[in-house]
Amino acid sequence: MATTDKASTRDRLLDAAAELFYRDGVSIGVEALCRTAGVSKRSMYQLFASKDEVLAASLARRMPEYEAQLAPDVPDAATPRERILNVFERLEKASAEPAYQGCPFLAALVELKDPEHPASAVAREAKEWMKGYFRTHAEDGGARDAELLARQLMLVFDGASARSGARVETLDGLTVATATMLLDASGVK
Fold it and tell me: Does the predicted TM-score (pTM) go above 0.70?
């Protein structure tokens, strides 16, 4: 029974952390986090050594959903080019949602500014996963320089995420058109 209670407390903390850190940023206090989760600070510290660990765990917990949302399995008939463009189509769709505030992993990296922070490591892993996804499909599609193209696509993705999350830009086909030009210039089929 105690395991179930701890799992429930842990889940509530991670759910609250994901919501608060995404909505309000990483500077939220332990009191606000625990109040939102409906758990005591003592319970939090029994599960996590620090708020930093809660942030890292909440980001790690989001990674599978992030990957599935942006790069779901598409039919085998999809070309590498279609797989890459699908990511940008999904980004544009997500960015139109009222609650969208950009990529949570990019936001964590920008806000923390500490490459040694445990959450920075998780966020970098998510960004490396995305770059690897782009690179793999760029290679499969015949890109002249798959690594360079992957880096360029990451700049488009992260820049679009940040600008649309800050509500200074609506994407409306902009990222798909930009990615298409990069794919054309790189020879990706």
Answer: yes
